[in-house]
Structures are given as structure tokens and as C-alpha cells.
Amino acid sequence: MLEIIIYIFASIALVVAAVFMVTRLRPGSNDSIGSFDFGKFKTREINKRGVHDKTRWH
User: Whole-model pTM above 0.90?
Assistant: First the structure.
């Protein structure tokens, strides 16, 4: 019984790791290490919080 539980948890961990690797390392992904778009991050954070961006030139 214990072997079955260990097998199930190991299988789930492998599936989660595989999904993470496929989504993180797919070709053409702009989220790779070293390329950070501050403007995109700032816009996403401001929209998430629902505030007005007073730093933009209008």
C-alpha cells in the first residue's frame, strides 16, 4: 500500500515538473532569464491594483 502512495506522488511530481519545463522553456518565450520588460511588468501591476499611473506623460 505504501509503495502505491509513493508511486502516485512521484508520478504527480514528474507531471508537474514536465508541465513547468514545457511552459518555461518553450521556444520564443519572452520570459526567459535575462530579458525583463519593466514597462510590461509596471502596466500589469498597475492594472491589477486598479490605480492610475501618474508617471506617464500625457
Answer: no
